[in-house]
Amino acid sequence: MALTATERTTLKRLPERGSHERATVRSILDEGIVCHVGFATERGPVVIPTTYGRVGDDLYLHGSPASRMLRTLKHGVPVCVTVTLVDALVLARSTFHHSINYRSVVVFGTAVEVTDPDEKAAALAAFVEHIVPGRTADARPATIKEVSGTLVLRLALAEASAKVRVGPPIDDEEDLALPVWAGVLPFTARPGPARPDAFVPDDVEVPAYVAAYDRPCS
User: Fold this and answer.
1) Within 10 A of 202 (CB to CB), how many other CB atoms are there?
2) CATH number assigned to the domain covering 15-211
3) pLDDT of residue 218
């Protein structure tokens, strides 16, 4: 089922790369780790990188109640959240046509504060599961004090779109005969070996979800 296209989510340039498919938007969000949150302040526009979690068609942001970003957004300031995945460098025969293969999502809306303790706890667990699936079944859950001391905001994925660039370079026809290498240089993000901290007992093994860690990939 597709999201409803709006004036803000309808692509004007290269619209063939755009998508309002809910599954596409979700898959990109689920593979990403960091989002950028843009909003206006009295001192001008601000863009803040942070982590996020998704539950269904809701995106969650969290942090300290002292966070300027969260304190601003909870009062109804319009927000734009973006997530971008870089898949490859695209090297063309001309510098003009160099590009990047990528997948991105842009979400517009107004965030609301989550006050229900159960929803807050579920959202905080979703943040952990988003970064390291399987971790919440192993680590100590957040206490009531920790949940109450965390500010959580919910942003509905009602006004969102994805944009994707795939494929080889698009060179001008007259450049195809140039003796210049052209093609795609794929990018992959892979974790290195897990390194325990100094307080892990010798008989505690690396969990399987850490040893075999990988990001979901569409």
Assistant:
1) 6
2) 2.30.110.10
3) 55
